[in-house]
Design a protein that fits this description.
Elements: E1 2-6, H1 10-22, E2 27-32, H2 35-45, E3 49-53, H3 61-70, E4 76-81, H4 86-94, E5 99-102, H5 107-138, H6 145-163, H7 171-185, H8 193-201, H9 208-239, H10 244-253, H11 256-269, H12 279-294
Length: 296
């Protein structure tokens, strides 16, 4: 991946560049010390990702992003923020910012955030290629409706996953497969989770023992993914309690007392445990939303 870093603090620019290049996360193809200078550079070199400071003297990060989007730039943005100003953070989310790096800069946080951005970029590109392939197939003589139905389910699932910040998690593919299976059989409610996992795991040539083993692996991947969703939503709530993604997903997919407990842990010391998650509720609500969006 290619990056441009926009920050009025030279030390921050150097630190970010060193971290991401030492971690093998990509190449910094330019840096700028102001929003106006950064916008000109970004439009010229078109990086995959822009790391941009929220507060800059001439033109803040939110204003700069608005300029870039108006000029047709479609890359990813990661906002760098030293202070938690709820109003400005809310504006950043409205501009489409999904990722924040907090100052003082922490190596572990930078690497984790940029790895997630990389995962989303890869998913976006894969989905784009799939859409083009399916569009080409639909021009052929065969009935396109089954393919269009499956694509629609997967697109809905991917949108929800990205909204909750788990589009790059390995369990996301398992969740998509489960939703496609449930839609295909027209389920009114979820079967027992063990049966559901093994139904998705069952493939031609797999023995019952192999299906059971893969079912357990699916369970673990989904549990980690749902726990990540809880942590992401709790983090959104801490930064901006009125964030629309937090308001929609947190009370719908989770018991809100568990969300508040996670927020309290984050607010106290910045560290969290595994968090309590109700997998069956999460998947049941997910299926309900997929069905609703299919019939809109």
């Amino acid at each position: 991946m290619s990056y441009v870093i926009v920050d009025d603090d030279a030390a921050s620019r150097r630190m970010l560049q060193t971290i991401l290049e030492n971690a093998g996360l990509g190449e910094v193809i330019g840096t700028a010390k102001s929003g106006s200078e950064g916008a000109e550079l970004i439009l010229k070199v078109r990086p995959d990702v822009v790391l941009i400071d929220l507060l800059m003297p001439d033109q803040d990060g939110i204003e700069t992003i608005g300029v870039l989007k108006a000029q047709g730039y479609t890359g990813k943005f990661v906002m760098i923020s030293q202070v938690v100003n709820k109003e400005m953070v809310g504006q950043a989310y409205q501009m489409g910012i999904e990722f924040f790096i907090h100052k003082p800069i922490n190596k572990v946080e930078v690497e984790a955030v940029l790895e997630r951005v990389s995962g989303q970029l890869k998913l976006d590109r894969s989905l784009s290629a799939i859409r083009k392939s399916l569009a080409a197939l639909e021009t052929g003589p065969s009935d396109p409706r089954p393919a269009a139905r499956e694509r629609t389910v997967r697109e809905i699932v991917q949108h929800i996953l990205l909204d909750m910040g788990i589009g790059a998690e390995s369990g996301g593919k398992d969740i998509a497969a489960i939703m496609e299976y449930l839609v295909r059989i027209g389920a009114d409610e979820l079967p027992p989770l063990k049966d559901l996992y093994e139904a998705v795991a069952a493939k031609d040539g797999r023995t019952p023992a192999e299906v059971a083993k893969e079912g357990k692996a699916i369970e673990q991947r989904i549990r980690r993914t749902v726990a990540s969703a809880l942590a992401n939503l709790a983090s959104l709530g801490l930064m901006d309690y009125g964030n629309p993604k937090f308001e929609h997903y947190a009370p719908l997919y989770f018991d809100f007392q568990d969300v508040r407990m996670m927020m309290k842990e984050m607010d106290n010391d910045g560290e969290t445990g595994k968090g309590k998650v109700n997998i069956k509720k999460f998947l049941q609500v997910f299926y309900m939303e997929v069905n609703e969006k299919l019939h809109e």
